[in-house]
Design goal:
single chain, globular, six-stranded mixed β-sheet, alpha/beta, Rossmann fold, binds adenosine-5'-triphosphate, about 40% helix, about 250 residues
């Protein structure tokens, strides 16, 4: 579980995140959505301890995040970003095993974990000998997910992990990811711009606006009982595929 209490982060005079209190439950997926600049990535970075709040507290799996605990707590969190963030000079395997090697895991233990994760993320094991530039976007994100899961973290944070993928690969990975989240039962926090993706994954949807929570709840609640016109506008701003064909009377 992740808990934020009254968390504020300012850059200069501007609030990136303002007085946010939020619980991301265990064994559930919390979706952060909102316009560009609304504070989604800042929230994830605050949870990772990559940036510290000006006010408020962050608690991860029961432990309060402070400069003193951040390093150890970060090992209990897996983090995946849009382009994967893999090191280009390391093979897929070396990228996935990086933290385990840093922690002096034995070769046997690393090999066993890599094999287990390769099966979980459904990656052809041969791909692991390749460098990130030799992999497709979807394969890269599967390796990124392996890296994030290597130490079997309590928490998985994903910042637009599928944003750079073409629609068919994206749909494939969405199916696989949802299955993986359900199987692992971890606390998952997932940032996306895409309403459809949020609805597909989200047990809880948190819609941010200018660093504050505009509305949270199930997607059906945001649709049927919007807290403000902004909620409706945000949801409706995303066109359904082929919508224009209908409005042009071609269906
Ligand atoms: N390191 C930084 N220095 C200064 N301002 C920052 C920094 N990081 C974020 N901000 C500002 O904080 C606000 C929130 O940014 P953040 O990246 O969290 O938004 P976001 O919702 O993730 O946006 P996007 O969807 O475009 O990724 C923005 O106004 C941004 O310009």
């Amino acid at each position: 579980m992740i808990q934020l209490d009254g968390v504020t982060k300012r850059y200069g005079d501007a609030y990136a995140v303002q007085d946010i209190s939020l619980t991301a439950a265990s064994e559930a997926t919390t979706l952060l959505i909102g316009p560009s600049g609304s504070g989604k990535s800042t929230l994830l970075r605050l949870v990772m301890g990559l940036t510290s709040p000006d006010a408020g507290t962050v608690t991860v799996a029961g432990d309060r995040l402070t400069p003193a605990t951040a390093r150890a707590l970060r090992r209990r969190m897996g983090y995946v970003i849009q382009e994967g963030g893999l090191f280009p000079h390391l093979t897929g395997r070396a990228n996935a095993a990086l933290m385990a090697r840093h922690l002096d895991w034995s070769r046997e233990r690393i090999d066993a974990r890599i094999e287990e994760l390769t099966r979980l993320v459904q990656l052809d094991p041969d791909r692991l000998a390749q460098y990130p530039t030799e992999l497709s976007g979807g394969q890269r994100q599967r390796v990124s997910l392996m890296r994030a899961l290597m130490l079997d973290p309590d928490v998985l944070l994903l910042d637009e992990p599928l944003g750079a993928l073409d629609p068919m690969i994206r749909a494939d990975l969405q199916d696989d990811l949802r299955d993986i989240f359900r199987r692992l039962g971890k606390t998952v926090v997932f940032v996306t711009h895409d309403i459809g993706e949020a609805a597909f994954f989200g047990d809880q949807i948190v819609l941010l606006r200018e660093g504050q929570i505009e509305q949270r709840g199930a997607m059906a609640t945001l649709l049927d009982d919007p807290a403000s016109p902004f909620v409706t506008d945000f949801i409706q701003a995303q066109r359904a595929p082929l919508e224009h064909l209908r409005t042009e009377g071609r269906e």
